[in-house]
Amino acid sequence: MKKYVFALMLCGLPLMINAQDAFDVLQMSQTELRGTSRFMSMAGAFGALGGDLSTLTQNPAGIGVYRNSDLGITMSLDFNSTKSGVDKMNQTKFNVNNVGYVGAIRLDSEVVPNLNFGITYNRLQSFNRHYVGGVADIPTSMSNFIADEFVNVPGYVIGDLTRTSNFNPYFDGYAPWAAVTTYDMPTANGSAGIINANSYEGGGYYLQGLYGGGTYGNAFYEVDERGHADEFNIAFGGNFANKLYWGLDFGILDLDYRSFQAYDEELENPYIMVDDNDMLHTDISNVGTSADWGLYNYLHSEGTGVNFKFGLIWRPTQALRIGAAFHTPTFYDMKDTYYVEADMKAYIDGNAIYHANKGSNDGYDYSSSYTLSTPWHFMGSVAGVIGTSGIVSLDYECVANESMRIGDDRGNNYPDVTENVKYYFKPSHIIRLGGEYRVNPNWSLRAGYSIKTTQVEKGVDNYDYNIATVGTNPAYQYDNNVHNITCGVGYRHKAFYADMAFVHKIRQSVYNAFSPINDNLGYEPNVSADVTDHNNRVSLTVGMRF
Fold first, then answer.
1. Domain annotation for the chain: domains and CATH numbers
2. 255-314, pLDDT tens digit by residue?
3. How far apart are CA 472 and CA 391, in angstroms?
């Protein structure tokens, strides 16, 4: 299995330079618990209830439950704390989570009592997260990974890393961009590199990373993510004899994601190019050497997409509701703009001998266009109405992460990324449980809990797979579990309503600076760290039903 996944990674390298990889697709495809305050305070367990503006993004059959028109807006403050190791970063963000209108059209019919339509805006995901950390006594160097990645490209030639008058290594060759960026870096006296060519005793060259026998050091990382995924919904629905409710929803999505990712190493006794009479040459030494180097990646992803949702709610008795919904993938047209800078300072016996620096694509941003499709979703729900005072609701949702796809700007899927998605990912399962108790005709109390399971296969979490990434950023991250603990209060007076919610989200993630290397020589660990988010959200919804 390991060899097969590694072979898939290698055959895809030339193609994947101009697109996102499997873990980037995963990042763009996530959603979180957002919507109206009533919806959030019950952990989103509304698949069998309906009658809320948020249900248009969940089970559109909920629009058929409406008997009156509804107009509302939801605002929130997010207090996010992200911890990796001993380092903690805090952020506060204001969001408008939901704005919507549902128009109820009453018909003079017992078979079809009403037909409804709705228009809503929903924030599906806020990408805002910032964390920093360090790893002491690293077992290897990212430079070794970059060198190994290039050497394993079929038919590799070291000359593929160097620009000539008629050869641009970023576009004309098959070398991974990270190797091109970290090789042949300009210095004041010539050129050096984070990866360098070293000679075999019998002739020829191989690529040398900085880490070898006697090398030790520490790593530092920073990830700063910003942006959003927003959905605009147009929905229609109704009911048959107040027993079967249905809904159709067409979604238009806007995605904007920006990230800065920095990775630095401080190494003692690294294998670096030495300085001979002020001219750098290909001899490699680790005698009394030290080095500080870093790789800094900037990415801006933006796109628009469309999806379709269909749902049903069946009410066999007054006390029981059963719901089901299906969401197609969201089909995005995407554009990426990215830039990388590599920087290295080398020392012998504490004295600086050179400072090397290089940016990708001769210092210019690079852009690419592609298509992306997110997972399909299936949802099953059941809810019980307890007299006139209580509601208990349970939702199950399956997110088919292995169905994600990425392709060129004409919609042709990349087969290598498709295979990687199938091997890396598995379905996520979401359980949502919520309840509401009506204290009196005006006031209600609510609470809920939800959990979302990991998206990755066990082999990814156990570091048994070589993970293929693209461009110049070898880092990847994923969630293990996401928990939401919620509560809230609601007030109703005639047509006016106001709801408040509190959501505490715990997100457990894993950051990997680069892929582990698994080959016939055995297991070589990577540099990784656990990341935990604690997000506290306070939201307010105000609206009118008329």
1. 2-134+218-264+296-346+365-545 (2.40.160.60)
2. 999 999 999 999 999 999 876 554 455 578 778 899 999 999 999 999 999 999 999 999
3. 51
What's the burial of 232, exposed, middle or buried (CB within 10 Å: 0-12/13-18/19+)?
middle
SS3 18: coil
According to DSSP, residue 59 is labeled: -
CA dihedral over 151, 153, 159, 163, signed as positive or negative: negative
Can you give the pTM of this predicted structure? 0.89
DSSP state of 181: H
Closest CA to 115 of 310, 249, 246: 246
Strand 390-399 and strand 443-452: the pairing is unpaired
Q: Which element (helix H / strand E) includes 288? A: none
Cβ contacts of residue 246 below 8 Å, gap of 6+? 61, 64, 237, 238, 239, 240, 311, 312, 313
Q: What is the CA radius of gyration of the chain?
A: 27
Integer Cα distance of 48 and 427 in angstroms: 22
What is the rounded distance in angstroms from the CA atom of residue 425 to the CA atom of residue 457? Answer: 5
How far apart, in whole angstroms, are the C-alpha atoms of residue 104 and residue 69?
Answer: 5
Write the CA distances from 21 to 437, 474, 502, integer angstroms: 46, 10, 35
| Three-state SS at 284 | strand
pLDDT tens-digit map of 451-468: 999 999 998 888 888 888
